[in-house]
Structures are given as structure tokens and as C-alpha cells.
Amino acid sequence: MHFGLIGKSIDYSFSKAYFTKKFKQEKLDHSYVNCDLEQIAQFPALLESKEWTGFNVTIPYKEQILSFVHHLSPEVQSIGAANVIAVHQQKLYAYNTDYLGFRQDLLEFLSAERPENALILGSGGASKAVIYALQQMGIKTQVVGRKALADKWNYEQASARLADFQLVVNCSPLGTFPHVNDMPALKLSDNLKGKFFYDLIYNPNETRLLKEARLRGAQTRNGQGMLILQAEASWDIWTKP
Fold first, then answer.
1. CB–CB of 54/238 below 8 Å?
2. CATH superfamily of 99-224
3. What's the CA angle centered on 123, arms 121 and 126, to 5 degrees?
4. pTM, full prediction
5. pLDDT of residue 124
6. Identical fold at 2-96 and 99-224?
7. Where exactly are the structural domains of the chain?
């Protein structure tokens, strides 16, 4: 079976190493490759290049990939983004396991805590899955971006209201290797005790945002656990009868 990761500038990616190791440990004669596309218009040619079983999808194509698929899962219809494609009898089926991985990992991180609301930094495909998961948990969300819109705050607004939120989730790529000194323009107060900061980034292990929050007393967690959980959920989709 042939699997791949669709994205752009994805040499850093976790998925290829994870699945290659999994296949070796389980003695499976499968392959997993990075499919680095300069633009999503290259996807049809990629699809014709071999007999694929499935793909993972990452930045920046989680939303754009939907124009090529034949069937959307209910979760993808609600979220508007997919990170898993299954190929079956020349038809493409889109799924989202990001929200599953995030929800399960967040529940472990929060333990018995249940924040009333959360600040979501970034508004791309990953943030849509996070918002969907939080809504399922009964947690209200406020999206933050560079520009304020009717339903979105800018970072100045978010910084002024940070005290009102117990949970902050970074869904932006700011701080990803090699740009490890970058971080969202959220001004952190000196005392963040009682707050939870979750960053979807897993490389580096501790982003600048998480470090700054930790030094101010917040509990922090990176996206490694979410990534493993969503990968295993992807595998279940590809191999289900």
C-alpha cells in the first residue's frame, strides 16, 4: 500500500517518520512519502502517479483539497477542512482526525478542569478543527487574527481581554522550526497561574509562546500528543473494511 503527506515545504514533517517506523515495527510492506506540492493544482498528477491508498493533508491544503474529493464525512462538512484522504475504488473520501486528536489530548491536559471559553490564535484549517472539538466540549471560542473582523479579534483586543480566558490554543504556524523566535503577538501578563496554553506546534518541543507562558506560571502542552492520536485515527480510516 502507498501513502503520502500532501503539503508545502514539509521536510520537517512528523508523519513520514512516524508511519515509516510503524510499518517497520509491524512488518508491513507499505510506503509513506512526502508529497511536497508547490500548488494544489499539482494534486491530480500526483494521484495518477501510483495506486495510492490514502493521504494525510497539512498546511496549506486542508481546505483546498476538498475541491478534489468525492465524499465528505459529516465532520469535514461541519469543519470545512480535511487532514485525511482515503482512496477507494478511484473515489476520494475526506475525513478530519485533527479534531479527534486535539480533543483527546486536551482532555488529558486539562484533567478535571473545564474552561468556559478559549482564545484561538489563528484562523486556518487547523483552527477550524480545534473550534469544532471545543464546541463539542461545551467551551466557547474567540478567534484571534492579525486583523479584526466581525467575528474575529486582533491581537491588541485579545491581549486586553486575556484575563477573561482560561485556555489559549495556538493554531498559527508562528514559532515553528526553524523560525523558533517567532510567536503570536499576544501580550502576556506577568501572572498566568491557573491558565492553560496549548500549542499545536510540535517542533520545537517548546515554542517561544509556551516558554513565555510557562515562565509566568501557566500550564503548557505542545501538539505532539495530538499528532500521534490523529495519525492513529488516520490509520484506522485507511485500513477499515
1. yes
2. NAD(P)-binding Rossmann-like Domain (3.40.50.720)
3. 90
4. 0.90
5. 82
6. yes
7. 2-96, 99-224
SS3 labels along the chain: CEEEEEECCCCCCHHHHHHHHHHHHCCCCCEEEEEECCCHHHHHHHHHCCCEEEEEECCCCCCHHHHHCCEECHHHHHHCCCCEEEEECCEEEEECCHHHHHHHHHHHHHCCCCCCEEEEECCCHHHHHHHHHHHHCCCEEEEECCCCECCEECHHHHHHCHHHCCEEEECCCCCCCCCCCCCCCCCCCCCCCCCEEEECCCCCCCCHHHHHHHHCCCEEECCHHHHHHHHHHHHHHHHCC
27 assigned to active site: no
Q: Which of 16, 62, 128, 195 is catalytic?
A: 62
Nearest to 199 by CA among 140, 132, 128, 127: 127
The C-alpha atoms of residue 107 and residue 225 are separated, in whole angstroms, by 11
Both ends of the chain: CA-CA distance in Å? 15
Contact 94, 66 (CB under 8 A): yes
Give the pLDDT confidence of 161-204 residue by residue, as tens digits. Answer: 999 999 999 999 999 988 999 999 999 999 999 999 999 999 99
Return d(Cα 120, Cα 117) in angstroms, integer: 10
* Superfamily of structural domain 2-96: Leucine Dehydrogenase, chain A, domain 1 (3.40.50.10860)
The predicted pLDDT at position 52 comes to 97
